[in-house]
Amino acid sequence: MKTKLLTSLLAGIVAAAPAFAELTFSSLSYRTGPYAANGIPLADGYADYMTLLNERDGGIGGVKTRVIECETGYNTEKGVECYEATKGEGVLVYEPYSTGMTYQLIPKTAADGIALHTGGYGRTSAKNGEVFRNVFNYPANYWDGASGAINHLLDINGGNIQGKKVALVYHNSAYGKEPIRTLEVLAEKHGYELSLLPVDHPGQEQKSQWLQIRRDRPDYVLMWGWGVMNQVAIQEAVNIRFPMENFIGVWWSGSENDVVPAGPKANGYKSLTFHGVGNEFPVLDEIKKYVVDAGKAAGAGDQVGTVLYNRGMYMAMLHSEAARTAQKMTGNSDVSQGDMIKAMEAFEMTEAKMVELGLPNFGPSFKVTCQNHGGDGLVAVAQWDANAGSWNMISDYKQSDQSVVAKLIAEDSAAYAAENNITPNCN
Amino acid sequence: MPEQLVFAMEVFLNGLMAGVLYALVALGFVLIYKASGIFNYAQGVMALFSAMTLVGIMEGQVPFSHLINAMLGTHVHHFGWHLPAVLGILLTMVVMVGLAWLVQVVIFRHLVNQEPIILFMATIGLAYFMEGFGDLMWGAEIKKLDVGLPQGINLWIDETTFNIFDYGFFIDNLDIVATIIAALLVGVLVAFSQYTKQGRAMRAVADDHQAALSVGVSLSFIWVMVWSVAGFVALVAGIMWGTKSGVQFSLSLIALKALPVLMLGGFTSIPGAIVGGLIIGVGEKLFEFALGPIIGGATENWFAYVLALVFLVFRPQGLFGDKIIERV
User: Fold this and answer.
1) At what angle do helices B173-195 and B3-36 cross, to 10 degrees?
2) Range of B64's domain?
3) Does the distance separating the beta carbons of B151 and A197 come in below 8 Å?
4) What is the phi-psi region of residue A398: left when phi exceeds 0, alpha when psi lies from -120 to 50, beta otherwise?
């Protein structure tokens, strides 16, 4: 009887005791399906950085991190299912790596009071934090990218692109259409001639578009592509002998996956970027030492230093540092979903902090405020060196044309607020 | 000659070439449908799987290396060889024949005399299995495929047309090679089905399973043979499309390009697949050229289906399909 009582008492104590605190993050990954080749390095980079924090530092502020990975196959419906299935686990921030999923998750996360981060994709006007209270898209968005591309053309043309012909080859989807409005407004401002060439999903057949480019002879081609569309476009550009240095893709059209199939002739292709490229960063050595060599890598460990691995790792760093900020703001090691939103709104990334984290010159410095959830819109350009098999930065980070982008964001976010009965505020 | 007409001629020729590539995919569907009445949903995935296997064999990649390394803690990835393309293709064909045998023994032997919808659903399962199995076996990364096929603009055509029209036509060397290979393939397939014992047996099975069985034709052998030939056609399609875009999951989606071709050409005709492919290729390219800029572009995917549907209104069995007459 005594034993039974003792056992019951012990069981009661165990049940009542708080679980070991963890900082929970989500990885809505796509390791299968048509975009698996891109989804794998993104997910690996994210998971490996979080593992590094646990293995090397014992977590964040003494609290271990936990990444709940949920396979979406880049399918929006599955992504929403993953969100619904995991939000109760105390996930601090969602990063869906899909503009389609982002649009579905914006109202859901707003209702649930959970942070949504869409670095370099998603709904651009979410930069306006007075309307999108829980959504963040720092350090750059699509419209920054469009302006960044035009900035680069201005730089290489002595500041004058009047009369130049610019063609946009884009994925015929909400994502691909994102830069059009910005490019049209910038065309009015700078006097270039813009032509639009949509490519239907998945983009394996682009002969019509590239025959038109061959006929029209644009001076520059910009690309907003994803998946197989990128590889085919670069190959077709090679086939028609379009000068690679005049072909610029957005950051989702600028990974090793996109240029390798075209071989040496892809040399010189350019891509916009909002973070560093290559494997010459101390943090990557740490990942190799504490994660890959220790057999704790999320994948095969063969993606470290690739563009998309670095991007996944960068997002993990931004999330973990936001959680650290939340710990400092609240004085608690445990962080709630509400704390995380406040911390992301007060987030600041400086070069000194990035050096400390083993990421010198990896990304732009920026400060988030209630009014500005998107950073300063700093965009750089990288170029593919086919002989070395590596991407190299060929420009510094430069701010997008805020006189154009900020106005468009204000218009679009105001329309969203009106549609959804949102009163913009910072309270 | 008016500039737009010259451009239209270039688009027409490129449409023909694109049509040949669509037809290559459609051929695999036709072969299996003719012999077994199965609409093989897995044909696109077979093209992907065969191309992945070809790259893996040529590059000496260890199959299931990620799985082996994760389970045993090893770091094996490559055998260390680089095989010539011809040898790689031959070995890949051995794999595809083995796959055909497995498909027959494990799946379709147990589904003889089942409704067509059951057989179709079995191929859906097969497609999903092969997608995952291929990824597990060879990895999901995009692979460069180089079997020595020429790519890029054909300079002779460029110069010749420039001398005639003052504008050089763009024709991709890879498309020319694909056209030649497709023509050879169709010739061989037609000759095989008309003039060889196995080919005649295949046609007999296509006409009536039970009648063929009653005269001693081995249904099992014929199905393995047909799936092997379809595997070979899938490999050819995989090489052509994989050379253009790299070998990656999206290769399996080329089946979507074959569907309007099949609707138009008929599910049972090898020449129909070719003619259907050419009509779809030319039709969608010319439509995009003429009306794409006016209505916003990206018309090719949907226009191919519209074109096929228009043909179906007048010939429900497709251009070359067998007319089905059922008497009550």
Assistant:
1) 30
2) 3-314
3) no
4) beta
Dmax of chain A from CA atoms? 93
Structural domain of A28 = 21-140+279-377+411-419
What is the count of structural domains for chain A? 2
Chain A residue numbers with beta carbons less than 8 Å from the beta carbon of B48 are none
B127: domain CATH number?
Answer: 1.10.3470
Among A227, A249, A273, the domain-final residue is A273
Q: Is B192 exposed, middle or buried (0-12, 13-18, 19+ CB in 10 A)?
A: middle
Q: B121 falls in which pLDDT band (50, 70, 90)? A: very high
Q: What is the pLDDT of residue B269?
A: 87
Q: For residue B18, which residues of chain A lie inside 8 Å, CB to CB?
A: 205, 207
Do the chains contact at B142 and A260, CB–CB below 8 Å? yes
Mean pLDDT of chain A: 94
Instruction: State percent of chain A over pLDDT 90.
Output: 91
Q: Where does a domain end: A273, A297, A330?
A: A273
Among B228, B220, B226, CA closest to B112: B220
Structure confidence at residue B328 (pLDDT):
62
Q: Does residue A14 belong to any structural domain of this protein?
A: no
pLDDT at B85: 96
Of the candidate ranges A11-20, A367-376, B47-56, the one whose mean pLDDT is the lowest: A11-20
d(CA B276, CA A172): 26
Q: To probe the interface with A, which of B167, B174, B248 has the most A CB atoms within 10 Å?
A: B248
pLDDT tens for each residue of B261-284: 998 988 888 889 999 999 999 999
A319 and A232 share a domain?
Answer: no
3-state SS assignment for residue A277:
coil
ipTM: 0.89
Lowest mean pLDDT among A169-183, A202-216, B293-307, B314-328: B314-328
CB contact under 8 A, A235 and B153: no
C-alpha closest to that of A194 among A176, A180, A173:
A180
| Domain-located, residue B9 | yes
Instruction: Give B109 to chain A, closest Cα distance, Å.
Output: 30
Partner A contacted by B148 (CB < 8 A): no
Contacts of B145 in chain A (CB under 8 A): 261
The whole-angstrom distance between B206's CA and the closest CA on chain A is 33
Contact residues on chain A for B135, CB-CB shorter than 8 A: 32, 36
Judged by a CB distance cut-off of 8 A, whether residue B76 touches chain A is no
A197: left (phi over 0), alpha (psi -120 to 50) or beta: beta
CB contact under 8 A, A235 and B254: no
Q: For residue B287, what is the nearest residue in chain A, using CA coordinates?
A: A208
CB contacts of A32 in chain B (<8 Å) are 131-132, 135, 140
Task: Tell me whether residues A207 and B18 touch, CB distance under 8 A.
Answer: yes
Q: pLDDT for A14-31, tens place per residue?
A: 444 444 589 999 999 999
Tokens of A239: 């086939």
Same domain, A317 and A347: yes
Query: Is A103 in the same domain as A179?
Result: no
Q: How far apart are CA B132 and CA B35, in angstroms?
A: 27
Considering the domain architecture, whether residues A359 and A296 belong to the same structural domain is answered as yes
| Contact between A202 and B253 using a beta-carbon 8 Å cutoff | yes
Residue A112 lies in a domain: yes
Smallest Cα distance from B282 to chain A, Å: 11
Give the Cα separation of B262 and B30 in Å (integer): 8
A239 interaction partners in chain B (CB closer than 8 Å): 151-153, 170, 172
**Do A108 and A195 fall within a single domain?**
no
Query: Is the same domain home to A224 and A309?
Result: no
